[in-house]
Design a protein that fits this description.
Distance between the termini: 109 Å
Shape: rod-shaped
Structural class: mainly alpha
Order of helices and strands: H
Largest sheet: none
Number of helices: 1
Number of strands: 0
Strand content: under 5%
Radius of gyration: 31 Å
């Protein structure tokens, strides 16, 4: 029977965390940029809907407030 071996030796753990650190260092900015772009697009869509609803509300309020008669 083979001898018991520890897979997570200190050297292997150091190498693992070294690769994790560099992976996060290079990948995290791209993830944050994509998240910011998504949030910005959602914000722009929300603002467009807000202004569109405001225009519709203004039109309906203006029609109710004034009566126009032409002779």
């Amino acid at each position: 029977m083979p001898e018991f071996q520890t897979f997570f030796t200190p050297a292997r753990l150091n190498e693992f965390w070294y690769y994790v650190k560099w992976l996060l260092f290079y990948v995290a900015p791209a993830i944050m940029i994509m998240a910011a772009a998504g949030a910005l697009s959602m914000f722009i869509a929300m603002m467009k809907k807000s202004f569109a609803n405001t225009k519709q509300i203004d039109k309906s309020e203006n029609n109710e407030d004034y009566e126009i008669r032409r002779y």
